[in-house]
Specification:
Helices cover 35% and strands 22% of the residues. By secondary structure, the chain is of the alpha/beta class. The longest helix has 24 residues.
């Protein structure tokens, strides 16, 4: 018998997305019972079973969809000729994608950056606050749910190593130094992110765009970077700007999930 708590904990520690399939209802003759479970990874490795055969193949295919679209799927199947079975039983199961919460990596623990991470408390976002200034975090009084990273300004690799790049990765760049901003943007454009944003003016965006193309040979320049960041709601205090940025992040997160459910 699988120890599901230990197995789920293992995948969570590895930050491996998995789909958790649970049989919620059985009617008539079925190859499984209520509570039968199975875990499915993105490369279709499975742990446990919900009875095998075509029913399980269907569940695996739907589990991949649940992972790709990051949404819960509920399905009902009658086990007739389509499944090469004549028992006529009915099975209902639920598929839950796990370890796919949005993760924000915010570079720059200045006034706006600190306000952003505070406002994200209580949202789906797991938050990382990153800064290169020595002893900078000691007096900020941040919530324990916020993960802080002290990186080395002179070592480019330290910026890259703190980020979990991928479909659930959101990156905001708000450092105290435009040269650092540029290095991070150039680095992030070569990795996979869900959202990449840079604080700054339109002129900063144009300057960075030209540098990326001419100096870094990144042909798309700033096409995939949101700059300036934040929704146009008015207000220019650090807290008001932070509210506009958090609203934008939540809009991207929820709009994507809502679109997938249509």
């Amino acid at each position: 018998m699988q120890n599901w708590i230990e197995l789920l904990s293992k995948f969570k520690q590895q930050q491996t997305p998995v789909a958790f399939v649970t049989v919620t209802k059985c009617l008539g003759s079925t190859p499984c019972v209520v509570g039968s479970r199975m875990l499915v990874t993105k490369d279709k490795q499975i742990y446990g079973t919900i009875g095998g055969g075509k029913l399980e193949f269907k569940a695996i295919d739907e589990a991949i969809v649940a992972l790709q679209e990051n949404r819960i799927i509920e399905s009902t199947y009658t086990l007739g000729p389509e499944f090469e079975q004549c028992c006529g039983g009915k099975v209902e199961f639920m598929i839950e994608p796990m370890n796919q919460s949005p993760e924000l990596f915010l570079f720059g623990a200045g006034h706006i950056g600190v306000e952003i991470v505070k406002l994200l408390d209580g949202t789906p976002f797991k938050v990382h606050l990153i800064d290169s200034r020595v002893h900078w975090f000691s007096n900020l009084g941040l919530d324990k749910n916020i993960t802080t990273h002290q990186v080395t300004e002179t070592d480019f690799k330290t910026f890259k190593d703190v980020v979990n790049w991928g479909d659930n990765c959101y990156v905001l760049v708000l450092t105290h130094n435009h040269a650092i901003d540029f290095d991070i943007i150039a680095m992030a454009l070569q990795e996979k992110t869900k959202f990449l944003g840079l604080i700054g003016s339109k002129s900063k965006k144009v300057r960075f765009n030209n540098m990326l193309i001419k100096e870094m040979n990144i042909e798309q320049g700033m096409q995939n970077v949101v700059c300036p960041i934040g929704l146009d709601i008015g207000g220019d205090t650090p807290k008001e700007i932070a509210i506009s940025v958090v609203a934008q992040l939540l809009q991207v997160h929820y709009h994507t999930n809502a679109t997938n459910e249509k």
